[in-house]
Design brief:
The protein is an alpha/beta fold and 193 residues long. The longest helix is centred in the C-terminal third of the chain and has 14 residues.
Length: 193
C-alpha cells in the first residue's frame, strides 16, 4: 500500500517571504488559502493582470504586495517559498526550475510532479490547527475531512488549550516529569469512556 511520506510543518509566514506568480482564479485560490490561515503573511503576487478579488485582498492585507509585471528570475531573490499558477505551463516550469536552483521550495498548481509541497486542508479553532493531506491525490477528500473536523472539534477547544498552557507553566521538575503530568491530565482526550 502506498503511504503518504510528506512531512507536515507549520510555517510562520509573517517571518518568511512568499512569491506567487499568477493573478487569476488559481492565484486567488492559493492566495486566499494562505491569507485565511496566515493573515499577516508576507506575500508578493506577480502577474500581468489581477483578479478583482486579489485587489480587494491587497486593500485588506498590508503585508500583501501586488506587482503588475511578467515574471523575471530576479523576483526569486530573498524568497523562502514560491507558488506558480499562471495559465502558461512554460512559465510555471521556468519558475520551478529557477526555484530549485536557488533551493527554494516551490508549488506549481495542479502539477504534482513540480511540487515540493502541497497546500492541504486546514482546520483552525483558535490555537488548534489541523492540516490534512491526501498526498496531492484528492483535494476533494481533504476538503470533506476539513468539513468533518470543523464540525466535531468543539468551538471551546481553544479555552482548554489556554488552560493547559497555564497549568503547564506551573509544573515543577524535569522535562520527563512535566511530560508525564501533562499526559495524565490530557489522557481523557483519547479515552472514549
Amino acid at each position: 500500500m502506498e503511504q503518504n511520506e510528506l512531512y507536515p510543518i507549520f510555517l510562520k509566514l509573517h517571518n518568511l517571504n512568499v512569491l506567487i506568480v499568477g493573478g487569476g482564479n488559481v492565484g486567488l485560490e492559493k492566495l486566499s488559502f494562505l491569507l485565511k490561515s496566515s493573515p499577516n503573511a508576507n506575500v508578493e503576487v506577480v502577474a500581468k493582470h489581477f483578479h478583482l478579488e486579489i485587489k480587494v485582498l491587497a486593500e485588506n492585507h498590508p503585508s500583501l504586495k501586488l506587482t503588475k509585471s511578467k515574471f523575471k528570475k530576479k523576483m526569486l531573490k530573498k524568497r523562502h517559498m514560491v507558488i506558480a499558477c499562471t495559465d502558461d505551463l512554460e512559465v510555471n516550469k521556468r519558475v520551478y526550475d529557477l526555484s530549485r536552483k536557488r533551493y527554494l521550495i516551490c508549488n506549481i498548481a495542479d502539477t504534482p510532479d513540480l511540487c515540493d509541497y502541497y497546500l492541504g486542508g486546514i482546520v483552525t479553532k483558535g490555537n488548534v490547527k489541523i492540516a490534512i493531506s491526501t498526498n496531492g491525490k484528492s483535494p476533494t477528500t481533504a476538503k470533506r475531512l476539513r468539513e468533518f473536523f470543523e464540525e466535531v472539534i468543539p468551538e471551546d477547544i481553544n479555552q482548554m488549550v489556554e488552560n493547559l498552557n497555564e497549568y503547564r507553566k506551573t509544573l515543577k521538575g524535569n522535562f520527563e516529569d512535566k511530560v508525564k503530568k501533562m499526559n495524565e491530565i490530557t489522557a481523557s482526550l483519547k479515552n472514549k469512556e
